[in-house]
Amino acid sequence: MAWIHLLIASVFEVVFALATNATHGFTELGPSLLTAAAAAGGIFFLSLALKTLDVGVGYTVWTGIGSVGTVVLGTVIFDESMNAGKVAAFVLIIGGVLGLKLSDRLGANA
């Protein structure tokens, strides 16, 4: 269940980052409220995940998924640039996230 909580927290993290961009310096009420709610939701679900997961693994996966999701959706929603260097970095981040999940699973079996 911790990994499900972490995935939910990561979705909130992406919403938080994208909504923050839309606040225009917190001058837009709707995106500002969404930003605050998404931040609270992300931290809440991260805290649930960290009841079971190591903080180093949980936080790293949360920020990794949040980073990749934010850049990918920022490209789609805000027409931000994408290039080979960014794609290579995403592959490394995703590989790291998968490696942490695998090592956490292997550690539980040891």
Give an account of the 3D structure.
This protein has 110 residues and is mainly alpha-helical. It has one domain. Helix content is 83%, strand content 0%. The mean pLDDT is 90. It is found in: Cell membrane. The chain crosses the membrane at residues 33-50, 57-78, 84-102. It is a multi-pass membrane protein. Keywords: Cell membrane, Membrane, Transmembrane, Transmembrane helix, Transport. Belongs to the drug/metabolite transporter (DMT) superfamily. Small multidrug resistance (SMR) (TC 2.A.7.1) family.
The major β-sheet equals: none
3D shape: flat
Low-confidence stretches: none
Query: Roughly what fraction of the amino acids lie in strands?
Result: under 5%
Q: Indicate the percent of residues in helices.
A: over 70%
Number of helices: 4
N-to-C SSE series?
Answer: HHHH
Distance between the first and last residues' Cα: 20 Å
Instruction: Give me the secondary-structure category.
Output: mainly alpha
Number of domain modules: 1
Radius of gyration, taken over Cα atoms and rounded to an integer in Å: 15 Å
* Number of beta-strand segments: 0
Mean pLDDT value: 90
InterPro entries: EmrE-like, Small_drug/metabolite_transptr, Small_multidrug_res
Protein name: Multidrug efflux SMR transporter
Family: Belongs to the drug/metabolite transporter (DMT) superfamily. Small multidrug resistance (SMR) (TC 2.A.7.1) family.
Pfam family, one: Multi_Drug_Res
